Amino acid sequence: IIALVVICVINSVQTIGDLSATTVGGMNRELKTKELTGGLLGNGLTTALSAFFGALPTSTFSQNVGIVAMTKVISRFVLALAGGFVLLAGLSPKFGALMTTIPYPVLGGATITVFGMITMTGIKLIIKDELSARNMTIVGLALALSLGIAEVPAAIEQFPGWLQSVIGGTPIVLAALTAFVLNLVLPQVTLDDEANEREALARSEAKADSAAQEKGEKPRVERMQLSGSR
């Protein structure tokens, strides 16, 4: 039960990311609150409905983000038509067999393009916000831990089995948990705050150097250079 709850929570995080990336990539604007709540509500209802059939929780299809970002097509009619093709492929073996005749080079080229657009849309989302030290720390640690454990699963082999299944199953779980915790723990510092801190530090260093010169001592920078040369 705990594992399924974690999956549902991470699934909601993925849904938020997919919805945000779709609006940014397809419409060049931020996600509205009404759209976010509607998307989460729809995903929650389908997840609850899937439980009645003994199925796993549903999730948004991230590959569609790349397609929307590339084509800029956000028509509901097109999405409904694509859903009809999926249903037809699942209910009609002949239609499903017809879809498998698509050459692998065509599928490979489309897949590379789609995932490339997904990556660039994610980068666009990151740089859309200010790249402060706090934000870069959150993004960097989330990516490093998730991708690192995915490549070296032996790093968590001493953890309990249930914890290994939660954070080692898919990288997005650990990335979401890391980003969520760091966002709560790290202080809210903007680029303006960092600039003010640097200016205050520079002023204090200038005062210290002027005071040292009045006393006949060398400035702090020269003292550091002399100590480094030794």
From TrEMBL:
Spans through the membrane: 39-61, 73-92, 104-126, 138-156, 162-186
A GO molecular function held by the record: xanthine transmembrane transporter activity
Family, as annotated: Belongs to the nucleobase:cation symporter-2 (NCS2) (TC 2.A.40) family.
Membrane protein topology class: Multi-pass membrane protein
Subcellular location: Cell membrane
Residue ranges with Basic and acidic residues bias: 200-223
Pfam families found in the cross-reference section: Xan_ur_permease
Protein's name in the database: Purine permease
Species for this entry: Candidatus Halomonas stercoripullorum
Cellular component terms per the entry's GO annotation: plasma membrane
Native organism taxonomy: Bacteria, Pseudomonadati, Pseudomonadota, Gammaproteobacteria, Oceanospirillales
Region (Disordered): 200-230
Keywords in alphabetical order: Cell membrane, Membrane, Transmembrane, Transmembrane helix, Transport
